[in-house]
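Bench log, entry 3. Co-assembly request; chain sequences pasted below exactly as received.
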Amino acid sequence: MMLAPAQNLSQRQRRRALALVAPALLMIGVFMLVPMGIAMVYSFLTPDSFGGVAPPVTVESYIRFFFDRDLDDTLRFDPTYLQIFWRSIFQAVLTTLACIVIAVPFAWYMATRGETTRKILVLLVSIPFWTNMLVRTYCWVLLLRDEGLINMGLQAVGITQQPITFLYSDAAILIGLIYASLPFMILPVYGTLEKVDFRVVEAAFDLYASRISILRKVIFPLAMPGIAAGTLLVFIPTLGAFLQPDILGGGKKLMIGSLIQQQFTSSRDWAFGSALAVILMAAVLASLIWAALKRERMEQLG
Amino acid sequence: MIRKGFSLKSVPESAFVTLLAMIFLYLPLIVLVVYAFNQNRVSTIWTGFSTIWFERVFADDNLRRAAWNSLIVALVATPVSTLLAIPAAMGFERELRFRGKAAGEALVALPLVAPEIVTAIATLIFFRLIGLQAGLLNVIIAHIVFCIPFALLPIRAQLRVIPRDIEDAAFDLYGTRWGIFRKITLPLLMPAIAAGASLAFVVSLDDFLITFMVAPAGATTLPVYLYGMLRVGVTPEANAAATLLLVVSIAVVALSMALTSRRT
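Structure output for the full assembly:
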């Protein structure tokens, strides 16, 4: 049997590899990447009266993000949309921080259990992860509304006479966001801590490290790769969240996700909606690149 | 001074945080289920066990149609996305080092990385532009796209675990590529494929936002219908419908986990 020349072989291998991955990539390419490109084009067009877009190429949608046009066509700085964008970033940062604070001790507890307990805990954390987000968000309405469980509890104990309004506030949205994201932080942090050699911690204790410095100087750095992975998994979906501001914020406290959704439904301004989506996607890509650069620097430092 | 013994197992703070977090994760779900079985219409106080709200939900024609739509979409999107994911996993894990691999990896991860609202509006624009008005088919196409990476994850993970030596040995014994795949790799991959398919199924069944934005009239799925119910306000019927959705996804996830754990 003759052996094929090495180059032919590698060329054939490359073709085979392409044939294997092509169908899946084509599907995502045609029905997701191309549509995103078209949305980007739409963001530079003018909205027409039928809820579509029309030719004149313009950056008007991007100008609208920062400015309001007066009757005499002068631009006036208008922070309305910037505030919504800022609120999204602020909520995403708070959600990420809260998830880290809860996930590190939680994952530490999980990692120090026996085999069976660990398996059960992983299962218990995974179940909410896979259950319907709409249902999970709605559950908090049952707890937080004026006639909800928390208000009934507070009144039964006698802390308040009148129900406290929790719903339709930034705090209610934040609770919903943390609730939705927590498993996304716990699981990767646990994945890292699970592999840790716990004798390191015992050594720190033997060397008279205080409990708080063990947490800060030993456990936290060890959990860092998991925290970094979890941060991306929490931060990005939170930044574009729609359901939590919609259901728990009652559409009063808009976030960028709900603002985009509004442009494609009630406001019927597809050009502005597309521009907002481009801005959101740019923020997502920026955080991904930042994370990649940071990881590279960390690896260089060792 | 001698320091008291240190045990990793007894860090009371971490146990306390874990307990609180577990209550935080499960209390809302438990409250929902309890309310769904509450006899009382106002559903604020418990007045007795009843399945009347579930009966009402099952009697709702629109809801039944929506549930049926959800099932059709998931039953089509799951096998299609899994069948696309299997060769892609083989390509990524077995035919290493082809040009554009990094770009391919990035593209396949796109549905996981892009915020759902961006995917939703881009798909909506695209369908409107090409004039695709095919009812459920619109929803099915959108679902296949975001199901692919979920079906792919467990299959790729399993391929990394199966030693290549087995396949190489079979190749040395003059097995054909297809024969090796069918007789050796595929059987070893079966639990992972089942796990991937059930993940795709859950993700499809649970999706709200993308379906909400792209579904033409008449192609309403269960989560979208439930959203409409919730808009009206807190009703025991909505609680019952939400509970049903909760039970279905937990059942499918449990099935998927059982399939994966049998492997190891």
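Chain B touches chain A through 84 residues (CB under 8 Å). Residues 39 and 191 of chain B are 43 Å apart (CA to CA).
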